[in-house]
Queue: 2 jobs
Job 1
Amino acid sequence: MGQFITFEGGEGAGKTTQIRLLQKHFQQLDVPCVATREPGDTALGDLIRKILLEVSVDAIAPLTELFLYLADRSHHVSQIIVPAISAGKIVLCDRFTDSTLAYQGYGRGIDLAWLRELNNAATSFIRPDLTFLLDCPIEVGLARVAERKYEAGTSREDRFERETVEFHEKVRAGFLALAREEPGRFCIIDAAKTVDESAADIREIVHRKLSHEPR
């Protein structure tokens, strides 16, 4: 069987970059690996992603937002994650169930116990073998997002980037609380470090925990 590794964190924490680097590392070792993300990465998921993150400034009710994420996750698990794991591949996933607890639970104030039940229903109880929490101060992450948009020549913000600093602080506190609850699964990465330093930390942990050190 394969392994399921998730990457969590707030806006601008560098999840996508670190997934890309770890995927490249596995490819160099000839380890079968799939990189994916939530929401998105299926035709249905791409439509849901546009609704949630990219379309207009219209408000979405918290429960509507939640059920859209869960619909994407259910489809994502059945179409990509489970088949890849069953084929013996390592799956690197940008966000999973912990993001729902952090954003919709700690951030929006929806009951955590209920969210856990919904996550279990949407995933058929699939859980990550290892979760990297890329953590950095909110101002650092949001500054990175702003810089990235400046370099891309756009000022358009997605739904979460338009949220208040207070909201982002609640989400960060939520992620850290989740990590304290499950220290065996979570590994906190200091995302304020350079990209290369964080990547080296992640590779060391992966080799130690999943025993993929080349022989």
Job 2
Amino acid sequence: MYLTSWSGGKDSCFACYRAIKKDFKVAYLVHFVRENNLHGVAPELIKLQAGLSGIPIIQKEVSSNDFESEFKDTVKRTGDIKGMVFGDIYLEEHRTWLERVCKDLNIEMFMPIWGVNTERLMNDFINEGFEAIVVSGKQEVIDKKWMGHKVDNYLMEYLKKKPGVDVCGENGEYHTFVVGGPLFKGRIDITESQVIERDGYWFLDIKDFTTVR
């Protein structure tokens, strides 16, 4: 059995989906809630999203100062786990950290979207039928009007015109929330929201939503 590191965004979701397609048995999604939540999505909404996937979710509040020990403790408490799935794409420092931590935990590390060209990855995500929206982004990178916008070819073309910006947002340029797709038994429709700004970021403050099954 495997765990999937889960943020509610497109990369962790797509990594989990690809792992399942390769017959990995994902027992739990693991969502770490940090005080400086740059994804901007409430934990309760991510719990609802996970419910639509049919995979149980473990949510754990963690502090940046003690993240590694809390990460390890959370994984250990899940029981007899063979490995963990991650949605990282190309940041070597992330991979190095994950390799070391997984080795300490004596579990496998599986990264099904690692090394994939990010433009191709975005196209694959869209073509597989997933739907995601932009929920946060650096003000210096992305305009306010894109908050709440679907992850689609229009967004890709906009980002491709910006020098040094990764279309997948792998360097933290923006974050997403998956609202539907083949991993889920239903979808989430955002019915009321507003855009707020904080510390150089735009955030989509989701005030109301409905679920369609």
